[in-house]
Amino acid sequence: xxxxxxxxxxxxxxxxxxxxxxxxxxxxGRIAILTEETAPFTNRIILSxxxxxxxxxxxxxxxxxxxxxxxxxxxxxxxRTRVERLDPETRIVELAGGDRLAYGGCxxxxxxxxxxLPVPGFRLPGVHTLRTVEDAEALRQGARGAERAIVIGGxxxxxxIACALTTRGLGVTLLAREEWLWGHLxxxxxxxxxxxxxxxxxxxxxxxxxVVAIRAVGGELAVATVGGEELRAPLVVAGVGVRYNVExxxxxxxxxxGGGVRVNERLETDAAGxxxxxxxxxxxxxxxxxxxxxxxxxxxxxxxxxxxxxxTGAQNVYARVSWYDTRLFDLPVIVVGAPxxxxxxxxxxxxxxxxxxALGWRGERLVAAYRLGAGGPIDEIxxxxxxxxxxxxx
Length: 394
Fold this sequence. Notes:
- The structure is a single chain.
- The protein is of the alpha/beta class.
- Helix content is 23%, strand content 32%.
- The chain starts with a strand and ends in a 7-residue tail after the last helix.
- The relative contact order is 0.14.
């Protein structure tokens, strides 16, 4: 007899929404959630925004669900618990310390963690990444005594952290390898417009910079780039991508080349009784007829719900056009669809000032959109993407 009818690895948005969905459909099944973190279901969205700018904001404000909510649902929540190995054939997980748990069905929702730059000095005191509440508390504490900061990384998290630290009153320099912000996903006109918004807010941008070393110099950190440039500040923050938490699946045959857990359109892995959802899932997306990852908070919740329902016997297909939004100083930004799939971009609304919209195409297929500035509901664009809209003009 298994130790848990439903075992969920990870207590983030995917894992917790899956547990709620399971309990809604199965009132008596034994559900256990294992997580390495100290608390479940953190609202990571506020960690790079309000939490960094408002010292009075308590850590508890970042928790979507408290432990009491799991007890009320009869869910066995185990924090600070590391999974060392999962055997899909025997349906057993091995924990750090030697304990073993057998499961009937299991969801892998272990998410991801920030990449570390492979450069000397990255682990020096004063160098931060941001993922957990503890990370955010440490970064906020470091910002209290700093006048300047260097942010490494030209993606979404780097832009959000740069805005938050500038709002606190720090002088912030952002270093990025790309020619424009979000250059790994966004077209130039979008990246340039976002960059201009950051510069208007007071962030200094230095593009096409690759960091090669960090060293401590007289109470500050010196960040060196290719070409010999060196910048100094007491606080350094890196947002340079993520690594999927899948080490416990090594040798299982369940991993997609390049990382992540391979699942079908119902979020099932190749092993019976095993699903994956959230950042870690390399899922077969029927909307785009492509296998890819989506790494944001809302998507993880939606996908977790579907996975939980399917673990109880449903056969739901996850077919959803995902989207997320952010605000960079006074600039609202909405990203819809899968910009990483776009091969060509067109202008839907001219970029004037801090407004505009660009559409991303793969052949004749609409796959993504960026909207900058206030606008109407995004539902219409999502529906056009889902319907496989053709461009009216090119």
